[in-house]
Specification:
The chain has one helix and no strands. The longest helix has about 45 residues.
Length: about 45
């Protein structure tokens, strides 16, 4: 019984860590895209 709960907790933690990494990655991608967009707009002017 306790082992199952421990496994669940570990799995939950791992999922949270992965979600954090994913959000960090997407934020970086979004930031890069935003910078590219700004440069493109500047060039268009």
């Amino acid at each position: 019984m306790e082992d199952e709960e421990k496994k669940k907790k570990k799995r939950g933690r791992r999922e949270v860590e992965e979600a954090k990494l994913k959000s960090r990655r997407t934020k970086k991608k979004v930031a890069v895209l935003a910078q590219k967009g700004k440069k493109a707009k500047r060039d268009a002017r």
